[in-house]
Structure formats: structure tokens, C-alpha cells
Amino acid sequence: MTTNDKIPQLRMLAPESFHEKLTRRAIFKMGSAAAGLALVVAACGGDDNGSSAPDDSPLASGDWSRVINAASGTLAMYTWGDYNDPLLVGEQAEDAIGVSMKVDYFNSNEDLIIKLATSGGNSGFDIVVPTGPYIPQMIEKGLIQKFDTSLIPNMVNVDPAYLAQAWDPNNEYSVCKNWGTTGFMWDSTVITKDLATWQDFFDACMNEASGNCSVIDTGPNVWGAWCWANGKDWNGTDAADLDACEAFLVDELAQHIKKFDSYPSTAIAEGAYALSMAWNGDARQAYFRIAEAGGDPTVWKWALGTPTTELWMDNYCIAAGAPNAEAAHAWINWDLIPEISIQDLAYHGYHTGMKEMPTLISELAPDLEFGDMIFFDESQVATMSTQEITSAIDRQVDIINKMKAKAGA
Amino acid sequence: MTTAVTSSDRRRWRGPKFALAIPSIIWYLLFFVIPILFIVVYSFGTKDASKLLPVDLGKLTTDNYSEVFDETFFKTFKSTLRIAIVATLLCLAIGLPVAYFAAFKVSEKWRATILALVVIPSFTSFLIRTVSWRIPLAPNGEFSRWLSDLGIVGDRGIQLLETQMAVQIAIVYNYLGFMILPLFVALDRIDVRMREASKDLGAGRIATFFGVTLPLAGPGIVAGVLLTFIPMCGDYVTATVLGGAKGNMIGSMIASQFSQAQNWPLGSAMAILMIGAVLLALTVGALVVWIVPWLLRVAQPVTQAVRRSMHARTTARVRHERVEQSRRFDGMKLSMGAWAVLVLLFMFIPIALVFRHSFNGGSSFSIWSGETSVKWWGELFDGGVAWAMLIRFFVITAGALLLRRVLNKVGVGSKRLLNWLGALGFIAAFVVNGLLTDWYREIFDFTGIGDAIRNSFVAAFGATVIAVVLGGLSGVALARRPGVWTKIFMAIVFLILVTPEVMDAIALVTWFQRVQDVPVLGYLFQNGIGPFSGGMHKLWVGQSLYASAVVTLIVRARLAGLDESLEEAAADLGATPARAFRQITLPLISAALIASGLLSFTLCLDNAVISTLVSEAGSTTFPVALLGATKSTIKPFWGVGAVMLFAMTMAALAFVAVVLRRSGESSSDIAATLAGG
Q1: Least CB-CB distance to A76: which of B73, B516, B617?
Q2: What is the rounded distance in angstroms from the CA atom of residue B415 to the CA atom of residue B288?
Q3: CATH superfamily membership of A17-179+312-375
Q4: Which residues of A189-217 are buried (b: 16+ CB within 10 A; e: fewer)?
């Protein structure tokens, strides 16, 4: 798993002004591990041994590349909701690489594609974050540009298991931001039985939680769940399966759905749902939010849907016509430094694909809560499969479109 | 128009009658008619997601229309119309007593206060007000728990969030102000003597209300219904934020065809049918409005006879009754006053919640953590810079005012200069503080919000200038140079008002892409001019459409009520058309221009749908950024941003008010113009 043959590189490419940029504010505000990192890098040059840090913030042990390339100007990112530690797309990025960042959000890969397609290379976005299977069509439509891989040397920090994916075998256009999976959580005071399979999810949704059930607002998650529940390949194109899927989702399930909600954690804490399909990171957030709202998190149960579920991977890409491609490279590269990556992980709760993850976590984020909702064992990962865009995609999208209309009727 | 007018027209102006409307005509052709025609064409196409713009026009079909009539989609149409009709009637029922109370039952001073209180909520971000409805509606929220403790609702709390009822409540809230204002203006204009005469003739309070007051308030009711019903039908934000699957409205369904479902042809067909449905509903409404008075008139001889006989019998008691009435009057006044207070409280609840939740110690705007904290304010602002700026601002403005006082006393300087000194100090404070340049980067730590607030102001200001110029010119042309063109032009203006915003947005977005290679236009929208990016130009175009239509209507209504003799006199005295316009027409419509400018500024500042689709990374406005954030968790700093935006808007308005007072405009005149001419 590890790539020990790489010589640890640490170059300091930031200009002198970088030191001045570490303002009082920056040091005050970044109480976290990686905040110290910038200081360490600035102060200690090539020393990557955590023990030499002037404060208590540790550096991960092992062979890591921690190249920081300076850039300037503004950097615009178009991504999924609340998907980075605000410091990493804010002050900390400004202090470390010298760019001020702007972040806008989309709700689905289709939204992202339409935005880029209709702006004809003028969207103004630099970094975009599509899910893996959507990358080939974005390349084909000319919406994203090739990396200059020499500007992303920290890519060596990524576990090879998360590189060279089917959609971009040489990582010419994309690099793993993080990956996650899909499960569901329920209020055990409403649904007293234990749920495990996707079939259980649908049953509860149509009975105890009828009218108080949410599903994720992206097509693949919903038609996928039907396939997973019924032992079908969710990348299959069999017409009979699609008909059966439509019959169930539109005619039977839709009426019981309260909302198509990709981020149910807030509404769960507000008390709007009794059962929610959720991505693992958002489900994890729900536990914090419930406590904050004065609720009892222990009555909420979480399950990774069985017998199968998905493994999705979101990726950093650079938009075609990006106004500041240089800064985009610099930021992506910076985000692949293990300390930064773990800081982000601790915020959003998704596995960022760094190699030697267990070591990183034990050294950098030993207090991480609900780790079992971020990291999955081999047997669990074995039940996960990745979506492929097939010839059935139009039909699948239409099914969800009808289902949403029907749910409102 | 009389023939005399036409002849003097000929003397003054030889060009076409619609000359003044030419800028608007070009603007609407370029950015409304042609782009929308493409959407019309799309509605006959087929979906092809493999294309950059996912429409195949190879084989044209009407399948999309029959698909909309499919029960699944059609139900959303019906529920949208139902929500909008019910909400419009509720707004009327809730708003009428308030407007009546303000117009007839209170002193001049209180009248202005009530009006201000009705208007102020609409200067808070529409989106954040909608989001803040999640707070009282949340089943686990404090309000719900309290009701549950009292035994009013069950153990699981209020079950309203993510339902159609939540949308219904919030939509009434969101548009109530747009109903009350025109109602008030119409009622306020009624000659009190009419009502007194009615009472002297023996009509009771109720008879006076239905026989005199209500018919005279007719235009106000029509204006209020139009101002609420049409935008409600296309509303996208309320349903998206609060509605869940069941509260889905046609606006969000159309939007999702253009994004997630990638089914542009179906979305286009839906949008076109939506326009049809709104027009149909308005026609039915107009018929009702037309038929009811007609029925009344038919029945008039009967009622008159009845009334006469009643009158004869009661004449002797009239005096006595009126005394009694005035005693009962107090009870009526009291209950109406109480109602007005309740309604105003209702309008301010979400705003109070926004304010409180900007001090939320927790991590989510809508979930009150029980702990008050300034941490999100600290997160957003660089305290040192912000305080220093405020102090500088205060010192300079106060200094200018002091100077004026002193100079006034000593008697130095011209009166005119002195009058403007306060405003000059305000401007000086702006300049000294660098408020015209990069201030937002200085005071905001979190540059995203600073940029968004700045972009909101720049976009709304630019769009308002465009709207006022275009709408002002075409409004004058419509009122003073009517002709065949008036009907066509008004039809376009009306179409702009009833077109769902999301359809405009898609039409514009694809149009901007199409004109990329056209010399001037392409450059404008790709590179921008001067300090403004191409994205900002797109925002100006997008936001100016609806706003200019509103300005056109207000200016036209204003001028229609004013005699043209002044302009004729000017022409007779040898003034050129340009001079007559500058010195006569412009002052006549200045109140209308200012009022409609304020209205369009507010509308543009809140614009979320068009702005979201046309904006680019560098031109994100506050509503666009917030709409993006609503997709996941809304952090409390959005509340802070909204409070800031509100404070700045109010400051700008106060400034405008001061300037207006100095220049002698009457604010009540402006308020009156604002709400329906």
C-alpha cells in the first residue's frame, strides 16, 4: 500500500512574503493541527519530523510529499454543499498559498454539467468536483481540462487504491477528493425493529415512516437502492428491470416520500424525518446536530445498506477556461498534504484516500468521533460498487423525474 | 387622447410615436423575445443529454405537451394554482383590514409608521426570511415543544415542516406586503366625503363598506392581486426551502427539468403551459371582477327600492343611530387595531428570528443551540477594521452636520450648499472609508459573503438604473404617444411579468452562449467592460427585465392620471421636445421614477432564480450564495450576512429619504406611487 520508494520532498516555493502572511489572525484562528503545519513548514524547511514542531501540532510520520506552490489572485470552486473545512477554502488557503477563495455549491452532477455547458467556458470556476462516472462525458464535452501533473507532486500521497480509476486511468483530469458510501438512519422510537437491508429501508419507509421518510436527491442513489434491494446490478441495462424499478419507485414508493433531500442531517435534527437515506458523512453530521438541537442522538440508528451499496468518489478537476488554473493546481496540490487532508476529513467526515490512513488518523486526529461512519472494514467495502454511466442513463433519469412529480401529487 | 393633443403632437415631434420606447423595444427583443422564442422551439424538440445543450431539434414533436398533461405532472400544476389562489385570497383577507385601519382609523403620523412597518420586512433577504420559517415550524424546535407541553399538539410536535401547509403559510407571509400597499393607497385616495355621504343617506357601516369603499378600492385590489398572484405562481424558493416533495410547486419542477432531469424540451413545454395557466386564471379572475358589479347593477333597482323603503322607515332614527354607531365605532377600531398589530407581528417574527439566530452559538442557522454567542459575527468580520470604520464614519458625518449648524448660525455660505452639507458629509465618509473600493475585503474576514453583498448591491443598482431609464422612457411613450404599438408593447410587458423566472433564466443563459461570437454583445458578456465582469453584465440584463416592466407600468399609470396641458403649454411657448421633457415631464414623473426605482432595487436585491443561473463565479450575489448554501447546512453566519445586508439597505434608504426631503419630494407621494399609481 505504501510507496516507500519515494524520497520525501519538501520544497518551500512560497515567496518571502509568505512568512508575513502568517498573521496574528491566522495563528489565532487555526487552532487545529494543520494550522501549525504552515508554521512548521515555514520555520523548519525540509524537516518533516513532527517532533520538531514548535507547538503541539503534530506532523504525520512517514514519507510524505508536502510541496506548497504559491499562487495569487482569486480561486473559484464549484462543489457540493458544505464540502470543505471553511478554513481550507478561506483564510488558511490565503495564508498558505496566497489565493483568496470563493465557493459556490451545486446539487447534482447534472447541475454542474449544465452550468459549465451553458457558460461556454466562461463559468469563471477553476476547481469543480464531479463524481467519478460523470468525468468521461465532461472530458468529451470539453468541460474540464488536463492537469499539469508536474504541479501536483503531492499526488504521491494518495493511496494507489484510489488512483487510476476507470473514468480517468492516468489521473490526467482528476484526483480523488474523497469517497463515501450510502446508508440510512432512522429514529428507533418510531421504527422499533432493526433495519439492515435496502428492502428493510423501503418497507419501513412505506409503513412506520410513511410520510416522514427522505431519500437522497440524486437519481443514482434512488434507482440504485432499488437495485441493491432486489439483487440487481445497478449498472445493468435490462429493460424489464428498469420497468420493474419504475413501477415500484413511481407507483408504490413515491407517495410515502416526504422530501428528496441530499443533506438530511439538519432536517433530522429539526425533527422532520423518522427515516432518511444519507451519505455516511452527512449521517455522521446528523449525530452532532441532533445533540445541538437538544435531542437524543442515541435513539437514532445508522446502517450501511445491505446486501450491496455504492462506493462513490468525488474528484477535483479543473474547469476548461479556468481563469486561474495555476492557483487551482496549487490548491489541489496543497489539499493533498496529509495534514491538510485529515483536517478536511475531520470536518466533512469522508475518507480522503490518503495512504496509511490508520496511522494518519491516530497521529493527527486521534479524537475523531464516529470513526466507524468514515472508515469501513474490508468486508464492508467488498459490498460496495461504483456507478457506471450506461445506455440506460436517460431512462433512469426519467424514472426519478416521474417519481419526484408523483411524490408531489 | 383628444385630437388637440394629437395635433400638438405633430407639431412637436415628427418621429414615430414609439420613439421613446425604442431602447426598451430593442432591449426586450434582444433579451426577452428572441431568447424566449428559442425556448418555444425547444418545447417541440427531444431530449438528447449527449449534446452540450441537451436538446435535439432534428425531429420536432408535440409529445412534450402531452406529457405535461399526463396526470403525474399535471397535478403539480393544479396544486400550484391552488396554493397561489388560496394564498392570494388569504393575503387579501388578512391585508384588507390592515390597509383599511391604516387608511381610515389612525392619525397621519401613525399611518406613516404602519406603512413603514409593512415595507421594512421586504428589505430583509427574501430567502433568509423563508429559511427562518423552518425555526418555528421545526417539530423539535422551541415553539413546537412549547405547544406540545401545553397539549395543543401531540408529542411529536408540529408536523408542518416539508409539507404543502408550510409553503402555504410562508407564501402568504412572503407576499403579504405586496397586497397591503396597493390596498392602502387605493383606500387612502377615497374621498372621505363619499363615505360620509353614504352614511348620511342612511347606509350602515357594512353597506357603506360594500357599496362605496370596496368598489372605489377596486383598482387597488386588482393591483394587489396581480402583484401577489403572478409571482406566487412562479415561486421557486419557498417550495424548495420549505415544501419537501409534497409541497413541490411548478417553479421548482420546471427548474429541475432544466438541471437534474436534463429534459429541456419538457421543461420548456411546462413553462409555456404555465404562462397559459396564469393567463387563464387571470382571465377568469377578470371575468369575475367584471361580472360581479354587473350583477349588482342589474340588481340595483331592487336594492334601491329596498333601501328606499328602509330609509323611509328609519330616517327618524338616523341621528340616533349615528351616535350609537360612533360609540360602537371604538370597538371596531380597537379590534382592527389589534388585528393590524397581530399582522405586523407576524411580518416581523421571521426577521426577529434571523436576528436572534445570527447570534446562535451552534453550527446551524435554523437550529437554536440554546447558547447566545457572537462567534459567527467574529467569524465574518475583522473586528478592528470594522469598528475603526464605523467610528470614522460617525465622526465625519456628525462633523458635517455640526458644521452645518455652525454655518447656519453664523450665516455663512449659500442656503443650497448648507442644505446639502449633511449628504456631502455622508458621501465624504464613504470615500474616506474606501467604501467605494475594496471595503468589503477589509471588513469581512470571510470574503465570500463580503463579495456577495457587494455584488448584490452592484447588480441591483445597475439593473435598477437600466430599469428606470428604459421603463421611464417607455412609460412616458405609452401614456403620451398611444397608438397601435401600445397594445403590442403592453402585451410584451405583460408577458415578461407572467413568464416564470426560471424560464427567463434558461432562455438568457442559452442566449448568452449563442451571442458569444457576435461582435459587441459577445465581448460584453464574455469580457465585460471596465471594472465589471461579463457575469455582472449578465446579471444586469437578467434582473432588469422584470424590474423595467414594473417601472413601465408605474410610470404609465402615473402619467395617465396627469393632464398633458403643461407639456402642451411648454411646446406652445417654444420649448423643444427635449426641453419640455426635461423641465416638465421629468419633474411630473419623478415621484414615480423614485418609487419604482426603489421597488425594482428591492426586487433585484432579492433576485435568486435568474441570478443563480446567469451568474458566474466572480459575480455571485447574496441570494445566489445563500441559495447554494440551502442545499446543505446553512451556517449562522448567513444570518449575520442577512442582518448586514438589511442594515446597509436601510442606511441607503435613509440616505435617499434625506436627499428627497432636501429636494422637496413628498415621501407620501412616493409611497402612493409605489403601490399602484
Answers
A1: B617
A2: 56
A3: Periplasmic binding protein-like II (3.40.190.10)
A4: eebeeebeebbbbbbbbeebbebbbbbbb
CB atoms A124 and B71 under 8 Å: no
Cα A195 from chain centroid? 25
- Cβ-based contacts of B613 with chain A (< 8 Å): 118
Q: What share of chain A is helix, strand, coil (3-state, %, to 5)?
A: 45, 15, 40
What 3-state DSSP class applies to A106? Answer: strand
Tell whether domain B69-302+332-356 is in CATH 1.10.3720.10.
Answer: yes
pLDDT in tens, B330-377: 678 889 999 999 999 999 999 999 999 999 988 889 999 888 888 888
CATH node for B13-44+446-674: 1.10.3720.10
Min Cα separation A273/chain B (Å): 9
Question: What part of B 373-412 touches A (C-beta under 8 Å)?
Answer: 382
pLDDT at A38: 42
Q: Which of residues 12-41 of A touch B (CB under 8 A)?
A: 25
Option in A118, A269, A270 nearest B510 (CB): A118
**C-alpha closest to that of B541 among B613, B472, B486:** B613
The CATH homologous superfamily for domain A182-311+381-408 is: Periplasmic binding protein-like II (3.40.190.10)
Query: Average pLDDT over chain B, rounded to whole?
Result: 83
pLDDT of residue B434: 57
The B residues from 500 to 559 touching A (CB cutoff 8 Å) are 509-510, 512-513, 516, 525-526, 533-535
Q: How far is Cα B630 from Cα B625, in angstroms, rounded to an integer?
A: 9
| ipTM of predicted complex | 0.84
Cβ-Cβ pairs closer than 8 A, A with B, add up to 214
- Give the Cα separation of A193 and A200 in Å (integer): 10
A179 DSSP β-pair partners: A313, A351
Enumerate the domain spans of chain A.
Answer: 17-179+312-375, 182-311+381-408
Report the alpha-carbon angle A212-A218-A219, nearest 5.
100
By the 8 A CB rule, do B210 and B170 touch?
A: no
Q: How many CA atoms lie within 13 A of B388 on its CB side?
A: 11
- Fold match flag (A17-179+312-375 vs A182-311+381-408): yes
Helix residue spans in B120-263 (DSSP H):
126-132, 134-137, 142-149, 164-189, 192-200, 205-208, 214-216, 218-234, 237-242, 250-258
CB of B102 less than 8 A from some CB of A: no
